[in-house]
């Protein structure tokens, strides 16, 4: 199960995969409501856009400390890179070039682009390390994880940091594998981009240093070239230590002044993050201790079971191969190969991504998005499992007497026959999940209905308002009022800017002043529903919407309206 030297054909396949991902996401973005966090980032992006406009018109004025602080103070608890891309996309792609039918899509497009780039990079890395079959399956399997697919649409940081984390890890792998100066520099630059994307990047130095230490131990035990490993490690880690912070500093104007104080405030915000509510197995958690089983169980409940099974197979196959190679090298029967240990790096990337969420004090309010940077590596191991299955299939086909069947053992026929079978369920699950991504659960737990019975969270972020706009447009009288519940105000406003929701419909902040009341079901929000019962004199929703027959959002209507 060896890798493949990349050629222009692989570049073409990667580009086609990226393009296909972007086309699918843009085509499906129109009926997906805006998540609460997106609303906050719309507001921040607008502030940054005005600064960029000033920068293009009057650079001297834009670099005044007051101008920088006024613009970049907004949402300064998160780095600036991705929100800058939201701002520039809105400025150029929408306001100047009018490329999208809905303004909200212009904010979402940078995340969509980075989703495509991430899928393409998975193909390239999988192909380079484990062959084209592994790379192709891994890329498609990542895209066909319903939670990844949902987040890939959003003007948020979660899929962008998946791609940046993957890119930095890939560049580090190349630096350790090939040496030289090009890849260490690339690793440093990629680390800087990751730092300026989201705080998940803080795990990267831990990953890199621990990996290097284990590689040195391996070299000592197997007679490897510790000096060369150390030289490559120093180059890669040194570039990351120097270039990473410089890139972050250069791309985040907020920290150009009072740098250390503002960085300390940023770090403190996340290290001491407040706790929000999240339901898990019928109980709402909002203070520690948090359930240690949350991350592994939610992964099993939301990632297609076929993909997880192939991940397990790939992990077993690669572990067996690595143990055998280690023992042979230890016995002196084979020479130690130079370069990084791919399997070890992938496994460590998964482990470090999940590690924090196995601790009782780590907040769980964001669901699977918190450890989603592990998913490309999970998919890569799954691709290795598929590659092994194809090799087994080819061996069995060669044993058959029928020549017409035996010929399929050669060339791509066996892989092309097996891949659609293995991808059918993930593709079907992902397609059926839209636009209810966070409500989707795999058949292993009984789908959305089974998850509701188990007491797993049905939804959060208030984005499912987008699924009921047709009802509101049809039923709310002109100038009527709607209690927007968990929908962020900027997200509500964007639905109206897009033309998806009538502009005369007025959102309000309390049940009693509204003629219609939205209710996004979360266990800790049931008090909002009880208020609607009292205010409207009914316990019967006027409209219910959800996934697979499971109610997710419903609407109460004041009697006589």
From TrEMBL:
<dbReference type="InterPro" id="IPR050297">
    <property type="entry name" value="LipidA_mod_glycosyltrf_83"/>
</dbReference>
<dbReference type="GO" id="GO:0009103">
    <property type="term" value="P:lipopolysaccharide biosynthetic process"/>
</dbReference>
<feature type="transmembrane region" description="Helical">
    <location>
        <begin position="293"/>
        <end position="317"/>
    </location>
</feature>
<dbReference type="GO" id="GO:0016763">
    <property type="term" value="F:pentosyltransferase activity"/>
</dbReference>
<protein>
    <submittedName>
        <fullName>Glycosyltransferase family 39 protein</fullName>
        <ecNumber>2.4.-.-</ecNumber>
    </submittedName>
</protein>
<feature type="transmembrane region" description="Helical">
    <location>
        <begin position="107"/>
        <end position="126"/>
    </location>
</feature>
<keyword id="KW-0472">Membrane</keyword>
<feature type="transmembrane region" description="Helical">
    <location>
        <begin position="233"/>
        <end position="252"/>
    </location>
</feature>
<feature type="domain" description="Glycosyltransferase RgtA/B/C/D-like">
    <location>
        <begin position="98"/>
        <end position="214"/>
    </location>
</feature>
<keyword id="KW-0328">Glycosyltransferase</keyword>
<feature type="transmembrane region" description="Helical">
    <location>
        <begin position="133"/>
        <end position="151"/>
    </location>
</feature>
<keyword id="KW-0808">Transferase</keyword>
<feature type="transmembrane region" description="Helical">
    <location>
        <begin position="201"/>
        <end position="221"/>
    </location>
</feature>
<keyword id="KW-1133">Transmembrane helix</keyword>
<feature type="transmembrane region" description="Helical">
    <location>
        <begin position="377"/>
        <end position="397"/>
    </location>
</feature>
<dbReference type="InterPro" id="IPR038731">
    <property type="entry name" value="RgtA/B/C-like"/>
</dbReference>
<feature type="transmembrane region" description="Helical">
    <location>
        <begin position="338"/>
        <end position="357"/>
    </location>
</feature>
<keyword id="KW-1003">Cell membrane</keyword>
<feature type="transmembrane region" description="Helical">
    <location>
        <begin position="12"/>
        <end position="34"/>
    </location>
</feature>
<keyword id="KW-0812">Transmembrane</keyword>
<dbReference type="Pfam" id="PF13231">
    <property type="entry name" value="PMT_2"/>
</dbReference>
<dbReference type="GO" id="GO:0005886">
    <property type="term" value="C:plasma membrane"/>
</dbReference>
């Amino acid at each position: 199960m060896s890798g493949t030297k990349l050629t222009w054909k692989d570049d073409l396949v990667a580009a086609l995969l990226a393009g296909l991902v972007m086309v699918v996401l843009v085509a499906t973005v129109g009926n997906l409501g805006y998540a609460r966090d997106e609303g906050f980032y719309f507001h921040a992006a607008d502030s940054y856009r005005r600064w960029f406009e000033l920068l293009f018109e009057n650079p001297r004025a834009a670099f005044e400390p007051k101008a920088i602080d006024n613009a970049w103070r907004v949402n300064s608890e998160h780095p600036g890179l991705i929100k800058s891309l939201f701002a520039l996309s809105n400025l150029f792609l929408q306001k100047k070039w009018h490329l999208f039918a809905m303004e909200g899509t212009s904010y979402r497009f940078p995340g969509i682009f980075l989703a495509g780039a991430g899928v393409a990079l998975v193909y390239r890395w999988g192909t380079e390390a484990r062959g084209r079959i592994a790379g192709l399956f891994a890329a498609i399997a990542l895209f066909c994880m319903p939670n990844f697919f949902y987040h890939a649409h959003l003007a948020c940081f979660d899929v962008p940091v998946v791609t940046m984390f993957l890119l930095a890890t890939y560049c580090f792998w190349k630096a350790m594998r090939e040496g030289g100066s090009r890849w260490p520099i690339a690793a440093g630059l990629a680390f800087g981009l990751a730092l300026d994307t989201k705080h998940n990047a803080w795990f990267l130095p831990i990953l890199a240093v621990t990996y290097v230490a284990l590689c040195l131990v391996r070299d000592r035990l197997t007679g490897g070239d510790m000096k060369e490993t150390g030289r490559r490690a120093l180059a890669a880690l040194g570039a990351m230590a120097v270039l990473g912070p410089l890139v972050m500093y250069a791309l985040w104007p907020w920290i150009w002044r009072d740098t250390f104080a503002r960085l300390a405030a940023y770090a403190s915000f996340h290290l001491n993050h407040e706790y929000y509510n999240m339901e898990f197995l019928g109980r709402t958690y909002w203070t520690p201790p948090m359930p240690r089983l949350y991350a592994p169980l939610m992964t099993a409940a939301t990632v297609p079971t076929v993909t997880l099974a192939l991940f397990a197979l790939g992990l077993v196959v690669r572990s067996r191969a690595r143990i055998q190679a280690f023992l042979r090298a230890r016995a002196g029967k084979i020479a130690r190969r130079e370069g990084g240990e791919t399997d070890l790096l992938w496994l460590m990337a998964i482990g470090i991504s999940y590690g924090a969420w196995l601790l009782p004090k780590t907040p769980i309010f964001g669901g699977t998005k918190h450890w989603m940077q592990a998913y490309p590596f999970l998919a890569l191991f799954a691709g290795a499992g598929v590659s092994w299955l194809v090799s087994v299939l080819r061996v069995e086909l060669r044993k058959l007497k029928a020549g017409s069947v035996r010929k399929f053992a050669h060339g791509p026929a066996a892989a092309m026959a097996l891949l659609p079978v293995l991808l059918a369920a993930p593709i079907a699950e992902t397609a059926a999940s839209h636009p209810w991504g966070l409500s989707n659960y795999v058949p292993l737990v009984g789908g959305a209905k089974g998850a509701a019975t188990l007491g797993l969270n049905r939804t959060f972020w208030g984005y499912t308002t987008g699924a009921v706009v047709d009802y509101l447009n049809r039923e709310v009288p002109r100038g009527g009022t709607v209690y927007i519940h968990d929908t962020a105000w900027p997200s509500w406003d964007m639905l109206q800017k897009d033309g998806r929701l009538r502009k005369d419909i007025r959102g309000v902040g309390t049940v009693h002043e509204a003629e219609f009341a939205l209710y996004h079901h979360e266990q800790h929000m049931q008090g909002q529903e009880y208020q609607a019962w009292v205010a409207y004199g009914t316990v019967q929703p006027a409209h219910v919407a959800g996934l697979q027959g499971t109610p997710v959002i419903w609407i109460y209507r004041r009697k006589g309206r």
